[in-house]
Amino acid sequence: MHTPVTIIGAGLGGLTLARVLHVHGIPSTVYEAETSPTARAQGGMLDIHDYNGQPALRAAGLIEEFRSLILEGRQAIRVLDRDGAVLFERADDGTDGRPEVLRGELRRILLDSLPAGTVRWGHKVSGVRALGEGRHEVTFADGTSVVTSLLVGADGAWSRVRPLLSDATPQYIGRSFVETFLLDADTRHPASAKAVGGGSLFVPEPGKGIQAHRESGGTLHTYVALTEPQDWFAAIDFTDPAAAAARIAREFDGWAPELTALITAGDTAPVLRPLHALPIGHRWDRVPGVTLLGDAAHLSAPNGEGANLAMYDGAELGKAIAAHPDAVEAALAEYEQTMFLRGAEAAAEGTQLHEFLFGDHAPHSLVAAFTEDDLS
Ligand SMILES: Cc1cc2nc3c(=O)[nH]c(=O)nc-3n(C[C@H](O)[C@H](O)[C@H](O)COP(=O)(O)OP(=O)(O)OC[C@H]3O[C@@H](n4cnc5c(N)ncnc54)[C@H](O)[C@@H]3O)c2cc1C
């Protein structure tokens, strides 16, 4: 393989692929739409699992760097009811196998591990075209283009590479999250900080719920879930943060004030995150010279696996390419065979998790899942 592997998207999946290729001495170029590593806040914590995210980082030779990022104690879990009563609690004894790190820091160690110039910032792909014999032309928004004999779409939910392989498009799952942040909460919002505890908080009810995480420095990061059509959210003016937060909080009338404060006392404007998914089991027939990884391949309802899977895909694809240096098609076929299976499995688990969280039997279904260890 004489041309560098061409990766679209510098998310966790694309960067892990680039790094694993580099570890095996294979050059790659990553084209990223954002203009710089700091163009967008990479908010949020990710729990990195010992069965997918961590092996990927090991393959990338970055496990020690990863360990230095771990926020101790954040694997604690609490489930409360709407009155703030504790239904389930598990402390973080360090043995859970899914330590939490900040997404931005994880992305930074991957970026720092690549040779200078690997990532080409400000390259938004506007079109892709098959040229035959496994070659593809990639065109960017500024009108420039490149031709490659190995193209990898790591460009997330709305992948521009995916149409080369499949007609599938993500569909709205009928639910959205509204994201808020409370800063310095131990001092400024002690009741909410206490309710969240040391790690993750879940307050689920049929069709809705509040999920919050303690991040670094007393930051509480909350996802408020509501099962409503997109039109319902479109009627809310998110350019007026206080009014939008108040409208969302109205859906939680009568809930404990330390819980509703997670919605109304935000230090940043609430952000609407509509949730989409590809069909479970999304797959395609082999097309020479191109493949997908991460959300581009198997976007699913958020279930704590997406970033882990994207990194695992990147590592597996990198290893497959390295194992078949003169047989790219064999590498892609080998990678896709197992990727399709793990993507389908995780997507099905995501649907089940949303049933535990927001189905008719919430919150008890979630408590039962934690108690019976159906959720790691
Ligand atoms: C609300 C929410 C919460 C989540 N929480 C978790 C969690 O706790 N744990 C977890 O594991 N997962 C979580 N996920 C899922 C996780 O964020 C994704 O699965 C993961 O980021 C996928 O990684 P990726 O590399 O495939 O894609 P992305 O992270 O989406 O990266 C794609 C990259 O491609 C770039 N790009 C896009 N289009 C173009 C283009 N046309 N040209 C060039 N570049 C382009 C983007 O700018 C981006 O940098 C959550 C998702 C949501 C929506």
Automatic annotation (TrEMBL):
Positions annotated to bind FAD: D47, R103, D295
Q: Please state what the protein is called.
A: Flavin-dependent monooxygenase
Subunit field text: Monomer.
Chief site of localization: cytoplasm
- Lineage, top ranks: Bacteria, Bacillati, Actinomycetota, Actinomycetes, Streptosporangiales
Give the location in the cell.
Cytoplasm
What role does this protein play?
A: An FAD-requiring monooxygenase active on some tetracycline antibiotic derivatives, which leads to their inactivation. Hydroxylates carbon 11a of tetracycline and some analogs.
One GO-annotated biological process of the protein? response to antibiotic
Domain of life according to the entry? Bacteria
Q: Where does NADPH bind?
A: R40
User: What is this enzyme's EC?
Assistant: 1.14.13.-
Q: Family per UniProt?
A: Belongs to the aromatic-ring hydroxylase family. TetX subfamily.
Start and end residues of each FAD-binding domain: 3-339
Broad class of enzyme this protein falls into = oxidoreductase
Q: Which HAMAP family match?
A: TetX_monooxygenase
Its required cofactor(s), as named, are: FAD
